[in-house]
Specification:
The chain has 2 helices and no strands. The chain starts with a helix and ends with a helix.
Length: about 50
């Protein structure tokens, strides 16, 4: 067996991989959006107070 044959023997589900990537991207986007809102709120609070 060559290295290429070993890779061909490994079964993987492309749809499952894409679903995990999509869910991770969604979570990371939500976290990033929450941080933006938090920083914006802190900046406004510092200007007002």
């Amino acid at each position: 067996m060559t290295e290429g044959d070993k890779e061909a023997d490994v079964p993987f589900d492309q749809d499952a991989i894409r679903a995990r990537q999509k869910s991770r991207s969604l979570v990371m986007g939500l976290i990033l959006g929450a941080l933006v809102v938090l920083f914006y709120a802190i900046a406004i609070a510092k200007m007002v107070g």
